[in-house]
């Protein structure tokens, strides 16, 4: 993995060197230079787009809007202030970023598809504003900028270097983001946004920052581009074809990768150039690009670079080892004495349409206990977990954690307070490695944390310890999706332990885990409990519950029907009735 990345950087550096000396070697041919500089421009846009749409997975279909915003900012300011457009080009980036933050703050608060539609709508709105705000933009007449100040003999060479420099900066910026916790958080959002929120990623802020970051360099490039064209108008500056081209470039090369969008941009730019020369006309280009987009989505869904990489990996497959059974340790640690109430639910309810999944539940979990929550399938256990961690809002009632009311807090805030959970069906980020998964949780919402290295030294060390604790140290560099189901459950446990939560909710931790790992699991829970971690455990394996947990709470049909020490709950007539027809509980009697 490491050597492959290094090889990619070496190839990129070699290409950069060739491109940097090209105008010096071949200065008298303006045409190839012009084709290349438009390639750089498209690569700047595709690489930027990749930050929000590749890393975070929120597809923007209106990204050329930022190019237009940059062009207009620079066109207007250069004329007003009487300065050269190049000097104010960075302000084009500032405008683009500010607008992105404003749009993002409105649209990215929620999840899902609204974003795609809004990005197109915004592009068209920008065009309409540019036509109508005549005082500012001169409407459809457009704005003419001054001619380049350098001698005609230099032709486009200064533009060539300006765009090349912007491309280098954009790629470095994108690479830097990918290496920070911001980058990991964005990938986590792409893979499973709900899960990302429960491990402490402030998903709203991360998305807005990514959208803003994806606008800046396009805005700057837009300013330079306006100077290059020396004329801008609404239709040219806010063109939907421009946005489609960006998407096509990034998808062709491989979205979500660092160099994919650059490779794609050069290819698409060449094809575009050929289309202009041989087929002519914008319409033919729309057709061509539309067709190409369909072909790419159908036959190269991951893009060129990832496909090549996958092919390479298939030629030399990494081996997936399986874990051997572990000996259960002899020493059973003493559980701590139950302390104050840590988690308290007071009259909590949640309905789905006509069904009341959680019905007026009041439940206390004391510090230092391993409290069980059992009940037949569909009795509302998972829903109750979702209410506590914030995946779902409660309809009524209060939830208190560690003396604070938390039911109005976003999931990541609850995580930062010390609430952790695992899922009934594991929700690891399958494309990340096991180690990346374990270090993905964020302990706080500070900006400093967000821009720090994705894996800091002591975190890698701690991740290693935790993986050893659950017996999976050897798998740190494997893709999480390649592990067996039971192993994934244990990785998720290690993941939740990373932040040292005070209370951990385990949703059927033993479900699908083979018996040899089961011993390891109860060992780990006991050991952590002895160190002061409180657990609330949903589990169907009743012998395991009776052995591990005290007290036991029983849900049936959304209502809490019994609560107490395991011996007492197991004899409770209401509990026996609730389990009637369910063969699990009678089996242990
Ligand atoms: P358990 O975890 O105890 O098996 P759940 O909490 O998953 O039970 O489900 C309780 C009830 O709520 C079930 O009848 C289930 O069908 C319903 N339910 C759970 N989640 C949803 C949802 N998102 N939308 C509609 N109904 C749901
Ligand atoms: Mg469940």
N-to-C span? 53 Å
Bound ligands: adenosine-5'-diphosphate, magnesium ion
Low-pLDDT ranges: 320-329
Question: Number of DSSP strands?
Answer: 12
- Tell me the fraction of residues in β-strands, as a range: 5-15%
Apparent shape: elongated
Q: How many H/I helices?
A: 25
Topology of this structure?
Blueprint: H1 2-25, H2 30-55, H3 64-81, H4 85-107, H5 114-132, H6 134-137, E1 143-144, H7 157-179, H8 181-191, H9 193-198, H10 203-229, E2 231-232, H11 234-237, H12 240-253, H13 260-279, H14 282-299, H15 304-315, E3 341-352, E4 355-366, E5 370-374, H16 381-389, E6 396-401, E7 404-405, H17 411-417, E8 419-421, H18 434-439, H19 447-450, H20 457-469, H21 485-497, E9 503-507, H22 515-530, E10 534-538, H23 542-548, E11 552-556, E12 559-564, H24 566-571, H25 573-578
Parallel strand pairs: 5-10, 5-11, 8-9, 9-10
Antiparallel strand pairs: 1-2, 3-4, 3-6, 6-7, 11-12
Helix pairs in contact: 1-7, 2-7, 2-8, 2-10, 2-12, 2-13, 3-4, 3-5, 3-10, 4-10, 7-8, 7-10, 8-10, 12-13, 12-14, 13-14, 20-21
Bound molecules: adenosine-5'-diphosphate and magnesium ion.
């Amino acid at each position: 993995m490491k050597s492959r990345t290094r090889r990619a950087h070496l190839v990129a550096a070699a290409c950069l060197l060739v491109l940097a000396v090209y105008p010096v070697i071949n200065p008298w041919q303006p045409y190839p230079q012009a084709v290349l500089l438009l390639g750089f421009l498209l690569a700047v846009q595709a690489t930027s787009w990749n930050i929000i749409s590749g890393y975070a997975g929120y597809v923007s279909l209106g990204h050329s809007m930022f190019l237009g915003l940059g062009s207009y900012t620079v066109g207007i300011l250069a004329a007003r202030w009487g300065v050269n457009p190049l000097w104010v080009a960075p302000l084009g980036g500032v405008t683009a970023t500010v607008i992105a933050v404003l749009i993002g703050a409105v649209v990215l608060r929620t999840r899902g598809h609204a974003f795609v539609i809004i990005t197109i709508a915004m592009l068209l709105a920008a065009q309409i504003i540019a036509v109508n705000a005549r005082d500012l933009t001169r409407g459809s007449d457009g704005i003419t900028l001054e001619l380049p100040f350098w001698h005609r003999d230099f032709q486009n060479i200064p533009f060539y270097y300006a765009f090349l420099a912007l491309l280098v900066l954009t790629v470095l910026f994108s690479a830097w983001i990918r290496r920070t916790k911001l980058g990991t958080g964005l990938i986590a959002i792409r893979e499973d946004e709900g899960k990302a929120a429960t491990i402490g990623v402030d998903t709203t802020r991360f998305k807005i920052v990514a959208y803003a970051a994806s606008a800046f360099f396009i805005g700057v490039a837009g300013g330079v581009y306006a100077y290059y064209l020396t004329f801008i108008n609404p239709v040219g500056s806010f063109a939907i074809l421009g946005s489609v081209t960006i998407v096509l470039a990034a998808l062709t090369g491989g979205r979500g990768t660092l160099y994919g969008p650059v490779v794609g941009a050069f290819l698409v730019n060449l094809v575009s150039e050929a289309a202009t020369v041989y087929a002519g006309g914008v319409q033919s280009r729309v057709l061509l690009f539309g067709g190409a987009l369909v072909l790419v989505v159908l036959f190269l869904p991951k893009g060129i670079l990832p496909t090549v990489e996958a092919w390479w990996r298939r030629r030399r497959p990494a081996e997936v080892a399986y874990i051997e059974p572990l000996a259960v340790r002899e020493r059973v640690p003493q559980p701590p004495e139950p302390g104050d109430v840590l988690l308290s639910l007071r009259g909590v309810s949640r309905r789905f349409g006509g069904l009341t999944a959680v019905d007026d539940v009041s439940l206390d979990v004391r510090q230092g206990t391993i409290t069980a929550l059992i009940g037949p399938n569909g009795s509302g256990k998972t829903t109750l977990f979702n209410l506590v961690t914030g995946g779902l809002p409660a309809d009524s009632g209060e939830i208190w954690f560690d003396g604070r009311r938390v039911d109005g807090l976003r999931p990541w805030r609850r995580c930062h307070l010390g609430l952790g959970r695992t899922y009934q069906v594991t929700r690891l980020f399958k494309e990340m490695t096991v180690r990346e998964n374990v270090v993905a949780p964020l302990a706080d919402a500070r900006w400093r944390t967000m821009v720090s290295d994705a894996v800091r030294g002591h975190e890698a060390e701690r991740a290693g310890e935790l993986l050893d604790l659950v017996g999976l140290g050897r798998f740190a560099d494997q893709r999480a999706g390649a592990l067996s189901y039971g192993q994934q459950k244990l990785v998720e446990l290690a993941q939740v332990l990373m932040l040292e939560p005070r209370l951990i909710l385990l949703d059927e931790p033993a479900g699908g885990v083979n018996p040899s790992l089961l011993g390891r699991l109860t060992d780990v829970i006991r050991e952590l409990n002895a160190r002061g971690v409180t657990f609330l455990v949903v589990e169907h394996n009743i012998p395991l519950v009776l052995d591990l947990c005290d007290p036991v709470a029983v849900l049936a049909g959304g209502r809490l029907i019994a609560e107490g020490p395991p011996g007492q709950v197991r004899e409770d007539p209401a509990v026996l009735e609730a389990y009637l027809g369910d063969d699990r509980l009678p089996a242990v009697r």
